[in-house]
Amino acid sequence: MSETLLIRGGLLIDPAQRIEEPRDLLIRNGSIAEVAKPGTLKGADKVIQVKNLVVAPGFVDLHAHLREPGQSHKETIATGTAAAAAGGFTSVCAMPNTAPVNDSPAITRWMRDPERGAVVNVFPIAAATVGSAGEKLSDYRELVAEGAVAVSDDGRPILDDNIMRDALSAAARLGIPVIQHAEDTRLTKGSPMNLGATSFRLGLRGQPREAEWKIVERDVRLAHETKAALHVAHISTLEGLDLVRMGRKAGARVTAEVCPHHFLFTEENCTDYDTRYKMNPPLRTAADREAMLQGLLDGTVDAIATDHAPHALYEKEVEFDRAMYGITGLEVAFAAAVTELHRRRKAPLSRVIELLTTNPARIVNLEGRGTLAKGSIADITLIDPKARWKYDVRKTRSKSRNCPYDGMEFHGKVVATIVGGRVVYEG
Amino acid sequence: MPAKPRSLLGIEPLSSRQILDFLASARKMNPARPSNKLRGRRVALLFYENSTRTRVSFEIAAKALGASTVVIHTSSSSAEKGESLKDTGLTLRSIVDAIVVRHPSSGSPNLLARILDIPIINAGDGMHEHPSQALLDAFTILQHKKTLKGLKIVTVGDIFHSRVARSDAILFSRLGAQLTLCGPEILLPDAAAQLGPGIRIERDMDKAVAGADVVMMLRVQQERLSGMKINVDEYVSQYQLTAARMRLAKKNAIIMHPGPMIRGMELTDEVADSPQSVVLEQVLNGVKVRMAILAALLGGKR
Fold first, then answer.
1. Is the ipTM of this complex over 0.90?
2. What is the dihedral of CA A56, A60, A65, A68, to 10 degrees?
């Protein structure tokens, strides 16, 4: 006899089924056994009463740095996934820029080993090239067999046209996307922020916008040519987003994600050399921020991803040009999206949820996830969309605290996170 | 911004009132007549980059006010052993009352000021600011001209790599001068015009210098070019201050240079040694202005 769990009294928002109605959910064997009108399901072993809460599919993060193997002073798979659970994420795609780089079936397997103590699902994104050196493709077939859901050389983008074309073709044969961090690193050496009047005033070298969009332009063209799936990571320039929009219209299989910091902040946040605002891609202009918001609202952007990038204090509390890139973000991404997109920009809550669930799950082909249809896996996030709260980074579950959201007030709180029918977080 | 700043991180955070206060105070300073105003106070001169004139200037200024100084060069400090700026700052905090810092990274003084509760004085950070130099430049101009308001100032040369140019531009425009920046695009991006209101960019040096009250020349910072290529012959022909070009400026125009000067590159010997040059006055004024800065930030209640 397997144990059953009934989630009763909530408002189900499941964009995949286009449902936004009061529904009760019965969970059996870690799967959704029944979805029914309120009060019609009876006789579960355990009941969770969720009056005034939204029941949503568990969030899927396409872009996190869990830092294992090799950088456990910043984060471990256990601490990173604990932070993910607190942020409502039930699945996290882990980037391969670990030490060593995850370019092998052995590391992919190691990351998925229960010994790592993950509290949510971890889906490795394997390195697209050996050592992420951009020269020789890694063995995608073996990597996928061990559970890799995509390939990427995040942080060390593939610049060579032929290698990128080969990567797309090889990935397409296996039905996985190539995720590209679009940055022509030949144009961005030693440039810790966006290039413009602000970087000039601060005396910092700047990353030109074309360093991003020219790679997006090339990648979209190659994706079109190879009929492969390209996913553009953490897009940040309005030109880049326009290229995604046009490429898709022309028939290319291209998707894109935006990080909360790129729709909340601008380069002006760097004015006091606060390294919590140093990330890559850098914070851009107000016009870029507006374009990201528009893209999120009009459907050009497919997913919100965190680019959760934990670093130790000693790696961040240094001169701006010497600080590591990146911020933590798993715990606040949802609240940031509710606050900015839903409350300020009046996007329906279902759109916010779609950006965090259905869409990202589809991009990396997570079978049975990103929806709460009958028969799917019981990865569920319970949300209070109206709750107001203040983020306190001292209480973070992450090992690191490099986070500009500290002290910020948000709307929308994760109340509980359920992975495979098991409650892994209660707020 | 409080009426009296605790640190001097740049010109940018200063109001025009605060700038004028520093200048007024500098006028009362006399390095040749030492005072006891800062007796018993200890000032660390933390230099991560080579400097002669700024370091010596701050040192003489501090001593003229009765303070004791300790000079820390990277070559002799823990930085070479890998100590972070934060830890160096924390260590110094327990033994000195203020830190004058020069550092190759823009914003380093901001980092120190965030961590420490003693005055931090920016003596030049990366390509960002060099506020004491801008104050002494303004001080020097005001010894020759009644006011900065409406004054035609032209700065020529490597603006991109120059922290002096940034501090000067912000200060001059804040006090109402008509500032023209002149140089090739690679050393003077259009974004420079946004440093302050009324800043103009002119690529043609003859046009830029025409009718100027003040001509400020800057050195090409070869050490910061990082891959950029400058054709020296071309640069000299287009942007060198020659006697002929100087004749396009007002008759009583002055020539300035924050040093170090490269004769034969940004200016000719003839111009450097002409009676219109106030370069050596700048050096003397530097001590007065730095006395005013130290007195303002370290003086008063303990």
1. yes
2. 90
- Options 2.30.40.10, 2.60.40.2250, 3.40.50.2300, 3.30.160.20; CATH for A4-55+377-426 is 2.30.40.10
- Which residue type, as a one-letter code, is found at position B25? S
Distances (CA, A) of A100 to A106, A126, A133, B255: 11, 12, 12, 58
Q: Cα B235 to the chain's mean position, in Å?
A: 24
Task: Give the nearest partner residue to B105 out of A201, A272, A320, using CB atoms.
Answer: A320
**pLDDT at B231 (0 to 100):** 86
Neighbours of A312 (CB within 10 A): 16
pLDDT (0 to 100) of residue B223: 75
Looking at chain B, which residues constitute the CATH 3.40.50.1370 domain(s)?
A: 16-130+283-298, 132-279
Question: How do strand A4-14 and strand A19-28 relate by DSSP bridges?
Answer: antiparallel
- The answer to whether B283 and B164 have CB atoms below 8 angstroms apart is no
Alpha-carbon gap: B39 to the closest alpha carbon of chain A (Å): 32
Residue intervals of chain A classified under CATH 3.20.20.140 are: 59-363
Give the mean model confidence (pLDDT) for residues A77-86.
Answer: 98
The mean pLDDT value of chain B amounts to: 93
Q: Crossing angle, helix B279-298 and helix B16-27, to 10 degrees?
A: 110
| Res. A112: pLDDT tops 50 | yes
Q: Which fold has domain A59-363?
A: TIM Barrel (3.20.20)
Q: Which residues contact A344 (CB under 8 A, 6 or more apart)?
A: none
Cα A216 from Cα A247, distance rounded (Å): 10
Task: State the catalytic residues of A.
Answer: 307
Q: Are A321 and A273 in contact (CB under 8 A)?
A: no
Is B105 close to A196, i.e. CB distance below 8 A?
no
pLDDT digits (tens, 9 = 90+) for A302-334: 999 999 999 999 999 999 999 999 999 999 999
Amino acid at B272: A
**A193-214 pLDDT tens trace:** 999 999 999 999 999 999 999 9
The string of pLDDT tens digits covering residues A241-258 is: 999 999 999 999 999 999
Which residues of B are less than 8 Å from A320 in CB distance?
Answer: 105-107, 111
Overall fold of domain B132-279 = Rossmann fold (3.40.50)
How far apart, in whole angstroms, are the C-alpha atoms of residue A367 and residue A121?
A: 13
Start-to-end Cα distance in chain A = 30
Q: By the 8 A CB rule, do A262 and A281 touch?
A: yes
Instruction: Give residue B256's pLDDT.
Output: 97
Residues of chain A with CATH 2.30.40.10: 4-55+377-426
Question: Measured between beta carbons, which residues in chain A are less than 8 angstroms from residue B107?
Answer: 202-204, 272-273, 319-321
pTM of the full structure: 0.95
Rounded Cα gap, residues A380 and A426, in angstroms = 12
CATH 3.40.50.1370 fits B16-130+283-298, yes or no: yes
